[in-house]
Structure formats: structure tokens, C-alpha cells
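[job 4471] stage=fold_predict status=RUNNING
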Amino acid sequence: MPKSKVRKKDDSATARTVSRTPVKVKAAPSSTLYVSVMLGLMIIGLLWLVVYYLAAEQISWMNSLGAYNFLIGFGFMVVGLVMTMRWR
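[job 4471] inference complete, writing C-alpha cells
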């Protein structure tokens, strides 16, 4: 079987191609405000649940929410935990 001819690469063509190797982008550290909001949301969620368990009978509006208190408390905590994914 005959061999195929080897073509010479044009140097100007290789210079125009874009490198496809991934480059790491160094991200700046998160601001203190971002970290404060993140931790604050998690603590607010925790406090909401603790207050609901301990004093739901004394706080009428919280008692009327019923099981939605779990949604509110865990909602705050989940938002804080989702924020940790962008924390640097």
C-alpha cells in the first residue's frame, strides 16, 4: 500500500489558531460584607427554628404560621449554604 504524502504545516496558520488549553482564573477573595451576609442568613435561620421550638406558644403570629416556620428557618439556612459555593 502506498504511503500518503506528508504535508508541511504553514507557520502562519498555526500562529492564528487559538489555544484551547484551559486557563485558571484567579478570583479575588470575597468581601467581608458577603461573608457577613452568608453567615448572618445561616444564623437567622437557626435562631428562627430555636425561637419557634422554645416560644411558639407565647408569640401568636409565629404560632399561627405553624409548619411554615420550618420552611422559613430552613430557607434562610439553605440560602446561606448556597452562598458558600461562591465564597473565596
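[job 4471] summary: The chain is about 60% helix and 0% strand.
[job 4471] exit 0
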